Amino acid sequence: MKKRVKKITGLRKIARAHAVFFLISFGLYTALSAILTPSFILSDMRNKSKALADDTITLVAKVLAPPVEPIVSGEAVCTNGNLSIQLNWPTDENSTSFDIDRDGSPLITSLIESQYADSNVVVSASYTYTVTARGPMGPGSAVSKPIAIKTPDECKGSTLVYYEKITAIESKNIASLEDVPQITVQKPTFSGHTNIPYAKIFITLHSGPEITAITYANGNGYWSWTSPETLDLGSHTIETIAVDPNDSTITATDSFSFEIVEKTTSQTNANSHKKKEIKKTNLAQRPTPAIITTAPFEIAVSVRNPDQIVYAGNNLSFNVDFIKKSPTLANQDYKIFYDVIDSDGRTVSEIYENINPTQIDSLEKNILIPILTKAGKYKIIVKAYDGRNLIEGEDFFQVKELPVVSVGSTSISLTQIMQSLGWISLLLFLLFLILLGIEHHQSEGALIQITENYLRRHGFLTKRKGVQR
Amino acid sequence: MNNNLELLFHFAIIFLSLFSIVYTFGVVWRVEKKLDTSFKFLLAAIISFTLSEIILILPFDWNQSISLVMKIIFIVFFLAGILEMRHMLRKMDGELKK
Lengths: 469, 98
Hints:
The structure holds two protein chains of two kinds. By secondary structure, chain A is of the alpha+beta class. Chain A is built from six helices and 27 strands. Chain A has helices spanning about 10-35, 40-55, 265-270, 415-420, 420-445, 450-455, and strands at about 75-80, 80-90, 95-100, 105-110, 115-120, 125-135, 140-145, 145-150, 165-170, 170-175, 180-185, 190-195, 200-205, 210-215, 220-225, 235-245, 250-260, 295-305, 310, 315-325, 335-340, 345-355, 360-370, 375-385, 390-400, 405, 410. In chain A, strands 11, 13, 14, 16, 17, 19, 21, 22, 24 and 25 form a ten-stranded mixed β-sheet that branches. In chain A, strands 3, 4, 6, 7 and 8 form a five-stranded antiparallel β-sheet that branches. In chain A, strand 9 (about 165-170) and strand 10 form a beta hairpin. In chain A, helix 1 (about 10-35) crosses helix 2 and helix 1 (about 10-35) packs antiparallel against helix 5 (about 420-445). By secondary structure, chain B is mainly α. Chain B has one domain. Classes of the chains: A alpha+beta, B mainly alpha. The interface of A and B includes residues 38, 370, 424, 442 and 451 of A.
């Protein structure tokens, strides 16, 4: 038995406090880096070592603040019979783009100007707009207060001109691209806008094997589509045709050419500041082409679940219609893929089967939505591939999940718990440090250090019965 | 098994392992000599095991291989701790000469 006698001087106390503070800070830094972004710690260490290696560090940087909440003003304008709602908000150097929602649904995204004219409006109606400013700093976005604008009861004049515009590629406004639009993403996302509400958007992507797809605009005329296939490097052209769902004679078209380059090539070009001509043509000025592509048929998908809502763990039910375009459709099997894609473009489920479209006009399908699927907006994409053409149809649906815990109006689902695991890990680590501190404090108060001799003396070891030594 | 559920079980293992580390530290701070040595080995084993579980859920290449290495380190330390404890008991028992 020995008594613990420790004499701690003031200097030693300070040194110990420093050591404990350093250990806790370093532990928190490491834990946060490892849990949230494991690659961060490596890049941070690399940057620090580089900074230390340089004799002189010259840093020229413009520190941006988080995006400022846009203060939106607007009015309905009737000019020569063209009715529109003009929206304006102050420019903000901290914001890189703006998204506008109308009546709770997207209207247009990736705007670079701080104004917008919404011509997709009718007389004697009220529209509510919110503008979301997006920027690299802080939370990354700031949402304006909603503004309601009523259109006048009358606006007569010239006839309405229908339009369809591809507005953004990979969340970059096409109008802002000074060079030939070059991207590095091989499954790019396009978004556009038409003044035909709920328009059926026929998309054709000319890129080696032709990709044909159908998507739908929302009530505001906004649509978004992601290429289901990885595109080759090189030039591509996308053509879109918006068709009124109630009157197929009302159409508007647009097309857009872009280039997919390797990442390194793109960066080199960006540094060299070479100005190149923009290759963008608006087919709206030309006679409307017939909605005919080389694909022998089209695929139309419609979700059958009530209100297009599916509860996690239940089946997604949908119809697939094969609309024949060529009377001499080859009697052959097509590989039909059924992909469920979430709002971030990730594939949630993917199945396929072989079907001969000449022998079948439509079919009903059921796909189980897993119980742990996160709530949100999804789409079902049906793709047919014959080795040359990719034909695609899609429809949207919403997944709602059953709560695990429900207290009053608040409910927590299993997915929400899983998404919070990063924070749970941090709290767990803090709990670990606190418990360790308590344990250490308690052991400091112990009067004796227990050894094997102490155990023997105090009868922790007794003679075994029936053993003679 | 579902990935999310698997992750949840991993977190439960890590959670309980952290408690084991804390209380094994408590024992190490209170004992001396052979007991201290054997518990230090056991502590190192538990830390290796916890690290192997943490590494397993981190999203990077080689995580499974590193986790396996950590598990080997775990069993080596665990064995060392048990052998140390066994040796101490045999000595106290008089089975081995002092």
